[in-house]
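Checked the freezer inventory, then went back to the computational side. Two predictions to log before the end of the day. The first one is the construct we discussed on Monday; recording sequence and tokens without edits.
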Amino acid sequence: MYIAEERGSAYAPDYRVYFKDESGPISPLHDIPLWADKARRLVNMVVEVPRWSNAKMEISLGEPLNPIKQDVKKGALRFVSNVFPHHGYIWNYGALPQTWENPHHIDPGTQARGDNDPIDVIEIGERVASRGDVYPVKILGTLALIDEGETDWKLIAIDSRDPVAEKLNDVGDVEVHFPGLLRATVEWFRLYKVPDGKPVNRFAFDGEAKDAEFAYKIIDEVHEFWRSLVSGDASGDGADANDINKMNVTVQSSAARVERAAAGAVLSRAPPPRPSPRAAARRGQVALHLQHIGDGDVAGRHVTVVCPQLYPRLASSRSASFRLISPHPASTDDSLNAVNPTHNAPARTSLTLLLPRSKEP
């Protein structure tokens, strides 16, 4: 059994999801076994993105213990745009542990190199998973996305505990029990970057989903690539392999294997968990750390103010201008206007402005 432990604040740059087994922190990439039940051909899936959500989360390859974090592009946290008529990711999305798509291997079928990531998997069962879930899945087939010139396999799977899992054994069964899902999946991957100004993605094999036997061969291949990676044999493949953090606690053949105490020290240095800006906003408690820069009664003091984005046009006879002191994902403005109800308040080192929820959009 594996436990996901969140640190930092969701949808903030410091957000991480670490993983534990019964003995302490582990790497989801290196320490969770690929096979959940090899006799039944069930593999473990690590959920990075639950269905219907938009935040692009992924296993961090470069950090010790490889926690899940939100992807960043050009300094901004990434959120996948909605592609009509879909909302966010249309399946539970994640990766298989102990796999690596070697960027120095050109696949003969796709004629493209691997994308330097663990292999991706879309899980189509009825349950909406949680970020950090680990559970056994049955592989049904795979698509071969060509993403910016790299092979990016998208395994198609179903939770082995799903009510219809026993009825699905190959990719042809998906259309029978989930009509239209394969077509929607291809459409989603073709278009999901277009709202960000990127071109339409393309697929190898004309977008045809390959069957389960083909997919299992790909899994065996990327598992062997991972073995060479974690053992150090892939170091000759250049910076791509060297940039992946290989810290683990269970792989005996790995020079990067550490004692449990060292893994525990990594987790102990992670920031403590905090409410996410979105969760706090729903409670009307998003706090931005601001400094008063006007000439009013609270000049020079630090103020904690409820998220001004919730109150875009508050009417007040007295207002003050505040500057953002510490970056916060709930705000992109350097200067904000906030109601100042404290003009008669006694001197204090900090103030909290608690405002009623605005009914305005």
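The second is the one RB wanted added to the comparison set:
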Amino acid sequence: MGLKHHGPTVFKAYIKWVYSGIHAASFLDEPGSLVSAYPLGEEILDREFQNAVITCLLKAPEMPGHDLVNAAYDMSPEGSPLRRVFVDKWAQTQPSYIREHLNCEYDHKFVIDVAIAVAEERSSGQEHRSINPSLENKELYLHKDL
């Protein structure tokens, strides 16, 4: 199949990251660029790059909208850290925010994943809800075999 489907912008960003050693956020200034770059890291098995992208997404102050979520679900396999970051950000926000903003524009698998994550969180007795999820557990999303 090759890697042409990633496009030159994604490769340019990746090569810049490899050779400069700068943090992913410095060259991928939009969450959409991060979402597009993550699957390249999955395909070429560059765990360090994947971790850099995930770290940037965790630090993003805004909630991921349907365009980013749908792109992530189109580009990544079930159980991918990319999907889990978005699900957990949504699941850890206020229920009123979820009711108001989660709608039919989101991939139906994402909506189901958020519902399951919220249910699991409630059944475990966790009550930490904020617009920005805590970064204290970011290790849950990162590859450890570096």
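For RB: The chain has eight helices and no strands. The helical segments are 7-20, 24-27, 31-43, 47-59, 66-75, 81-91, 95-101, 108-123. Let me know if you want it refolded.
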